[in-house]
Every structure is written in structure tokens, then in C-alpha cells.
């Protein structure tokens, strides 16, 4: 795995701009939320990490280990990838089950999911977008991804029909083996991306055409990470999203591919912790 970059661009944008898939909580040496509360210390928020298309919750493993060492309870639920209405409702149910403040983090398509899921969730105190979509009401990802040049993700997909329970036929998308690394994870070792490609999860094509019905970033503060060499969501589009959302801080990672949370877990974890600190 590539080392962290030697330089970081931090843009303070300010006004200008569950269940079975839940992973382990904080390390045993870290005080629990209940213990901190009993001691009169403000409880740290729970971090909920939402993955994007073609992926599973294991893509957060390097970040989870760092957040756990810092004493944060961390959950990485399985995003169903069945369509924005289904996925947002599911993540909203996970958030609702958590007592205390939550920092909701989304990668890629997961950004669209948390944008919808956090609406009305009074315990969500911060939104963190990692190389992510940040749609507004009425927008579709299939339209947004063409706003700036540079994405090769759609050309890299292979459609596969599947039968629905009601007798209809849906379409799942997979990334082609010979295009997976270039489109998704060019800064990771070939051996790693071969495993990622072989174990990728199907991504319903409706996720690109579903309409965002509400946008939580209008009322919940946000943070963003730009993957400067992203070939899935162009870096220019990520910058546009974060500026439009009025993100409190934006970190730009030179050379980072779409999966910056894997190739640059320290920077990703630090950004999440920066957001988390504003809730205590």
C-alpha cells in the first residue's frame, strides 16, 4: 500500500464554500460511552461508515482500526446497493438504533445514501464525504457524474440482469476485471485490486437514476475529502460538491484513487476525527 502523501491540501471552505455487518466497537482499553457519561465526560460520537457501489464494509477496515484506537465506537453496516430509497431507509434505521451523537461517513455512492438517510435524524451531528457524491434534492447521479470530464467508471461496468421477487427483471452492474484497477483503485497493489474485483458486490443500475428526495447537508455540517486522481468521481466534481455544501473543511489528497480510505487511511481517519470533535 502506498505511503501517505508528503503534502496535504487543506481548504477551509467555511461560509464560502446493521446488524450483522456491524464491526467491532472500540478497543477494550478505551472507556465506553456509558463510563464516560458516568464520569461526567461528554460521550464521543459513534462513527457510522457507509461504503459505496461495488464494495463491502471491509473497505473501511484500515480506517476502523485507527478510529477504534482513538476510542471511537465504530459501525460499518452493509449498504444494500439495491437503490437509493431502499439503501437510505436501511442506513437511517441503523442510525436510529444508536443512542447518542453520530458522525455519518459516506464513500462514493455512500455519500448519496447518507445525504438522504440523515434527513430528520436528530442524532446525526456531522456528515463526512470521502471521494463521494453529495447530491441535492431532485438530482440523479447519472447526470451529476457527467458534469465534469474524467470519470471512466460507467465505461468500465458490465450489466447483468437478475430476476426480481415480483417477476420483473433488474440490472446489476459489475466492474470489468480488466478495467477495475484503473477505474477504481489505481494506487493500490495489483494483487489487492484483483481480490477486490473478484469479491465486488453487485450494484443496482437504479442507483444511478434514483432521485435524491432530501439533502441533509443543508442543515448538518459537512467535511469532505477529494481524491485528486479519482477516475470514478472526478476530483473537480468532488470539489464542486463540497463547496456547494459549505463544507467546514476539505482535505485534498494528491495521487489518491477513488478508494482513498484504503490507500490513505490516516488522512481519512484524521478528517473523520476532526468532524467528530465538533460534537463533544
Please tag this protein with its features.
280 residues, alpha/beta, Rossmann fold, 7-stranded mixed β-sheet, 3-stranded antiparallel β-sheet, 11 helices, 31% helix, disordered N terminus
Write up what this structure looks like:
The protein is of the alpha/beta class and 280 residues long. It has one domain (9-151, 211-277): Rossmann fold. The protein has eleven helices and ten strands. The protein has helices at 33-38, 61-69, 84-96, 109-117, 141-144, 180-184, 190-198, 206-209, 235-244, 260-263, 265-277; strands at 9-11, 46-50, 74-75, 102-107, 124-130, 157-163, 169-175, 203-204, 222-227, 249-253. It has a seven-stranded mixed β-sheet with strand order 1-10-9-5-4-2-3, with helices on both faces. The chain has a three-stranded antiparallel β-sheet with strand order 6-7-8. Strand 6 and strand 7 form a beta hairpin. Helix 3 (84-96) crosses helix 4 (109-117). Residues 1-39 have low confidence and may be disordered.
Amino acid at each position: 500500500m502506498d505511503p501517505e502523501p508528503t503534502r496535504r491540501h487543506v481548504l477551509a471552505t467555511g461560509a464560502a464554500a446493521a446488524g450483522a455487518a456491524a464491526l467491532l466497537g472500540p478497543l477494550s482499553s478505551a472507556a465506553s460511552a456509558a463510563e464516560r457519561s458516568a464520569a461526567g465526560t461528554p460521550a464521543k460520537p459513534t462513527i457510522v461508515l457507509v461504503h459505496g457501489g461495488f464494495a463491502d464494509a471491509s473497505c473501511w477496515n484500515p480506517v476502523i482500526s485507527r478510529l477504534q484506537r482513538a476510542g471511537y465506537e465504530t459501525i460499518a453496516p452493509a449498504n444494500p446497493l439495491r437503490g437509493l430509497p431502499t439503501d437510505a431507509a436501511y442506513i437511517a434505521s441503523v442510525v436510529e438504533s444508536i443512542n447518542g451523537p453520530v458522525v455519518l461517513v459516506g464513500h462514493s455512492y455512500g455519500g448519496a445514501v447518507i445525504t438522504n438517510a440523515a434527513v430528520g435524524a436528530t442524532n446525526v451531528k456531522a456528515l463526512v464525504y470521502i471521494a463521494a457524491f453529495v447530491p441535492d434534492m431532485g438530482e440523479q447521479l447519472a447526470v451529476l457524474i457527467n458534469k465534469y470530464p474524467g470519470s471512466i467508471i460507467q465505461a468500465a461496468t458490465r450489466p447483468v440482469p437478475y430476476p426480481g421477487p415480483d417477476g420483473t427483471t433488474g440490472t446489476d452492474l459489475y466492474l470489468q476485471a480488466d478495467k477495475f484497477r484503473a477505474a477504481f483503485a489505481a494506487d493500490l497493489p495489483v494483487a489487492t485490486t484483483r481480490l477486490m474485483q473478484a469479491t465486488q458486490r453487485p450494484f443496482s443500475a437504479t442507483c444511478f437514476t434514483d432521485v435524491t428526495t432530501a439533502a441533509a447537508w443543508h442543515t448538518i455540517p459537512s467535511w469532505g475529502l477529494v481524491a485528486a486522481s479519482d477516475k470514478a468521481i472526478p476530483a473537480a466534481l468532488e470539489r464542486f460538491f463540497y463547496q456547494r455544501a459549505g463544507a467546514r473543511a476539505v482535505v485534498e489528497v494528491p495521487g489518491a484513487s477513488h478508494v482513498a480510505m484504503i490507500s490513505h487511511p490516516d488522512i481519512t481517519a484524521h478528517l473523520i476525527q476532526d468532524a467528530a470533535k465538533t460534537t463533544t
